[in-house]
Design goal:
Number of helices: 31
Radius of gyration: 26 Å
Helix content: over 70%
Structural class: mainly alpha
Number of strands: 4
Mean pLDDT: 79
Strand order of the largest sheet: 1-2
Distance between the termini: 39 Å
Shape: globular
Length: about 675
């Protein structure tokens, strides 16, 4: 957390130990070096991907081993010896790659033993860093994938390959080939996930830190409370709407998380949502921006090419499903607020909108500049740099105007210090922002490096494409099973491919089968595939949007990923509605279209309630099971069964509403004076 007077202290939410004063100084210096490098590459001169990602990862790993000692205990001499070995390994493997980069590229495919040695060191260092910073689970996942790559007749573990089922079997690879893929290729540790962490995520995490140190964070918190503080979960609800709007414009879930999340995530945390929940809500809402017209990333344009429909039709047909998705996320936010007893604040306790604007309208300038540059199609990384420069410029101009032009009263604490003291305070706050940005980037960067291990192994073994190609054969002609396999295939592909690439591969492999064998309308097939292709943003172990949200929320990346996965359940359910009720999109009798939309709303409403175990009041376990049964019935391709499922869900919700009414009457009788 940031104290404007004391600088940075270790946040109580971060599971690290207090560190010695000299270690804190080293961490601060490393944070300044890392921040300066990132701003230089974002705003002036982009670097080669290996230089950018290699330098970033090495510095972050050193910070991680300084801040997170082995065993999470106070260091003695032998613990220092172990930590020093890992710090040396991080520096050596990073330096080796950068110093020998040209030679490594020149001998691509014919690597030397020293190349492999450095790769082994980097892989071990990354695995140990993930264990310390994030936890054992993601480290085990990375290790399992490495072992899987060795399992095969030509691999380092041929005996294990004999135990693999046919769909998982592959030729197997020796250790040097695996290490070369993970360390010396563009699809391993230094692949797309780390590329995201080493550019746009860090830049916007740093932007969020500057918002806090300059006072802009307080302005946006006050503004959100003034506008929505009287509702339960009001700022979080506003965050969902704002994230959907921004995500549709930016064309990138990750860019939207780091853009709007810098404002919305602190608001949700302050309101009472857990850090993992705040990051998860932002990631789920930002992912929804990719399915919300008019921009939809590159999806709308690609669908127009594949289906032959005009772009305007794609946008029109995508609107209703996208609104249903956001209604689901909005509902989860409201249920959590009701469950926790988050009540709206009294008007007397809230700031006035007019006064908030009067005191801090200038903080809207960085946000306006940020949105304007995003609309111009400039890369999010460059936009983050511009936003940081803008917030600094606004803060400086604000101080000059208040100090020398308006000549405010001397009791104003912000103009009381003389100029040298004010400049010193500004420097301290800037250093605090750099250190906070670097610390918050550590778990995200380490998680993305481990994700790179998973990505590299999937590409090496061909697991992703193999799974996609076989999923229809395993469905046995069952539509629901085919859709489940499609969702699994999109998740596996999402581990190794960006959303757009994942959609393209699945559109080529799966769309013909969905249309030809199962009779699904072409536009529905492509909408389902495009929606499922988004799940790598919010589904562990590679949930890039959630990892970005975790960095801003100062939360555990994997826990944030699971929260985002829960909040984004509409990403899986709504495509099922589209398949079994295509009239929702392609049209049909008016009464049936209305029925379908109402059924979808009730089903999503009941599903969210059953998942959280709360609607109006706590739900009994058997009521939650009844909702599950009703949800299954609603997808049955027979109207009578569908109507019965609808009746079951409405009955359960009505029972819970009546239960809440009884509880309210009992409370009123117990407290007649209230």
């Amino acid at each position: 957390m940031i104290d404007p007077e004391k600088g940075v202290v270790i946040d109580v939410e971060r599971p690290s130990l207090p560190i010695a004063a000299w270690v804190a100084v080293v961490v601060t210096l490393l944070a300044l070096v890392l921040g300066a490098f990132q701003l230089y590459t974002a705003g002036y001169r982009p670097m080669n991907l290996f230089v950018q990602r290699g330098f970033h990862l090495s510095v972050v790993l050193v910070i991680a081993f300084l801040v997170f000692p082995i065993g999470r205990r106070k260091r003695n001499w032998w613990r220092w010896l172990i930590d020093a070995a890992f710090i040396g390994g991080a520096v050596y493997s990073g330096w080796y790659l950068l110093y020998n980069l040209d030679a490594i590229i020149a001998r691509s495919g014919f690597f030397r033993p020293e190349d492999i040695r450095a790769g082994v060191v980097m892989t071990l260092v990354v695995l140990e860093a993930s264990r310390r910073v994030i936890g054992t689970t993601i480290t085990v996942i990375g290790g399992v994938f490495i072992v899987y790559a060795m399992a095969g007749p030509r691999g380092a573990l041929p005996w294990l390959g004999e135990m693999m089922p046919g769909i998982l079997a592959h030729r197997g690879y020796p250790l040097d080939r695996i290490v070369a893929t993970l360390y010396l290729g563009q699809e391993g540790i230094f692949g797309l996930p780390l590329g995201v962490a080493a550019t746009v995520v860090f830049t916007f995490v740093l932007f969020g830190a500057f918002l806090e140190t300059t006072g802009a964070g307080k302005f946006f918190i006050d503004l959100a409370y003034a506008a929505a503080g009287r509702q339960r979960g009001g700022p979080a609800k506003a965050a969902v709407v704002a994230s959907g709007f921004m995500g549709s414009i930016s064309g990138s879930a990750i860019a939207n998380v780091v853009t709007s999340g810098a404002f919305t995530i602190p608001l949700m945390k302050k309101l009472g949502y857990k850090p993992e929940e705040a990051g998860g809500v932002e990631a789920a809402a930002s992912t929804g921006g990719q399915i919300m017209p008019p921009i939809m990333g590159a999806g709308a344009f690609l669908m127009a090419e594949y289906t032959g429909l005009p772009y305007a039709d794609i946008v029109r047909l995508s609107l209703l499903p996208a609104l249903l998705y956001f209604a689901t996320v909005f509902l989860f936010v409201d249920i959590i607020a009701a469950k926790r007893g988050m009540r709206g604040m009294k008007a007397s306790e809230l700031p006035k909108v007019g006064q908030v604007f009067k005191d801090g309208w200038y903080y809207l300038v960085p946000l306006g500049v940020l949105i304007w540059f995003l609309l111009q199609g400039i890369s999010p990384n460059r936009v983050g740099f511009v936003a940081i420069v803008t917030i600094l410029a606004v803060s400086i101009v604000r101080w000059i105007v208040r100090r020398f032009v308006l000549r405010l009263a001397p009791e104003d604490v912000e103009v009381r210090p003389p100029v040298p003291a004010a400049l010193l305070l500004g420097v301290r706050r800037t250093v605090a922002a750099f250190e906070t940005g670097a610390r918050n980037a550590v778990p995200v960067t380490v998680a993305c490096a481990i994700a790179g291990v998973v990505v590299g192994i999937i590409g090496l073994t061909g697991l992703g494409l193999k799974f996609s190609g076989l999923m229809m054969a395993f469905s046995g002609g069952n539509l629901l099973l085919a859709l489940v396999l499609l969702a699994l295939a999109s998740l596996v592909l999402g581990l190794g491919l960006p959303v757009t690439a994942s959609y393209i591969v699945l559109a080529v492999l799966a769309a013909p089968a969905l249309v030809g064998e199962f009779g699904i309308p072409l536009i529905i097939a492509h909408l389902v595939i495009f929606w499922y292709s988004q799940d790598s943003n919010v589904t562990p172990p590679v949930a890039l949007a959630a990892f970005a949200g975790a960095g801003i929320a100062n939360a555990d990346p994997m826990k944030t990923g699971f929260q985002a996965w829960k909040f984004a359940k509409g990403l899986y359910l709504i495509p099922l509605f589209l398949v079994y009720n295509p009239e929702m999109v392609v049209g049909g009798p008016a009464w049936y279209v209305v029925w379908t939309v109402v059924a979808a709303l009730v089903s999503l409403f009941a599903f969210a309630a059953a998942l959280e175990g709360f609607m109006f009041t706590t739900m009994y376990w058997f009521n939650r099971l009844l909702v599950g049964a009703g949800l299954v019935m609603i997808f049955y391709p027979l109207f009578a069964v569908e109507a019965a499922g609808m009746g079951v869900m409405l009955l359960v919700l009505t029972i819970n509403w009546l239960k809440r009414r009884r509880e309210e009457r009992a409370e009123a009788e117990a407290n007649p004076a209230v």
